Amino acid sequence: MAARETRFAASKSSGQVSAVLLRPAEARWLLVLGHGAGAGMRHTFMEAVAKALASNGIATFRYQFPYMEQGKKFPNPQPVLVKTVRSAVIAAHEMARDLPLLAGGKSLGGRMTSTAASQEPLPDVRGIVFFGFPLHPPTKPSDVRAAHLFDVSVPMLFLQGTRDKLADLNLLRPVFDRLAERATLHIIEGADHGFHVLKRSGRTDDDLVAELARMISGWSAQCCSK
User: Fold this and answer.
1) I need a labelling partner for 57 at 20 to 30 A (CA). Which of 31, 81, 141, 225 fits?
2) Which CATH fold topology does 3-224 show?
3) 190 vs 28, 29, 164, 174, CA distance in Å?
4) What is the DSSP secondary-structure string of 123-134?
5) Could you tell me if 185 and 160 are in contact, meaning their C-beta atoms sit under 8 angstroms apart?
6) Residue of 202, 201, 219 lying closest to 159 (CA atoms)
7) Residue 75 phi, psi (nearest 5)
């Protein structure tokens, strides 16, 4: 299973960015996967998730946001990030037209995916996956960032750790309840925002990644198949 490197135009103002398609032989889905705010598509978590998903029959299209491609520390303005998500979905579909699409990402990547989908449905995307939805900044609990989720029309899967300092579960669970049948919440006991666990838990980070991949595989078959 070889990874295929490519580039696509993120937006008219931002130029091209890098992407990697990892497609297993028996792929059933293609997940368009955006990275978090502080690490790009080649971060160890992103690569581990892509490999675990491939083992579960899900191809991935990992891509860079323009600021990360340019080696900058701070994310682009939201309109640029949202445009990049939409461009990534189109580019991914062109590379694997036979596969149904999912989209989402780690933290910022997931939030920008749902923001894009709330403004206008993402072409051919059947569901959105959040690897740690960043509900609020650290030490500033709020659910304001969740307001746009009610304008998303496709099923959503929230993968959240109990030690995530960017998502107080006491605030996230009521949001989930109001989203009703549109949302599935899967809690990872002991995981932080980066999906790391303490040694005393008896589990490893690899165990968590495998759990995430299995959950996505089962959810996509149940909620997103037509």
Assistant:
1) 81
2) Rossmann fold (3.40.50)
3) 30, 29, 9, 21
4) TTEEEEEEES--
5) yes
6) 219
7) -60, 155
Among candidates 192, 42, 193, 190, which has minimal Cα distance to 111? 193
Report the chain's C-alpha Rg in angstroms. 16
Say if residues 19 and 8 touch (Cβ distance below 8 Å). Answer: yes
Closest CA to 128 of 113, 115, 143: 113
| Tens-place pLDDT, residues 123-178 | 999 999 999 999 999 888 999 999 999 999 999 999 999 999 999 999 999 999 99
Model confidence pTM above 0.85: yes
Q: Cα dihedral sign for 142, 168, 84, 100?
A: negative
The span from the CA of 4 to the CA of 9, in Å, is: 17
The pair of three-digit structure tokens given for residue 24, joined into one six-digit string: 């297993």
Residues 37, 35: Cα–Cα separation, whole Å: 7
Nearest one of 216, 71, 79, 9 to 19, comparing CA atoms: 9
- Please state, in angstroms and rounded to a whole number, the distance separating the CA atoms of residues 137 and 144: 11
pLDDT attached to residue 188:
94
Which pair of structure tokens corresponds to residue 1? 């299973």
Q: Could you identify the residue written with the tokens 């062109």?
A: 94
Distance CA 191, CA 161 (A): 4
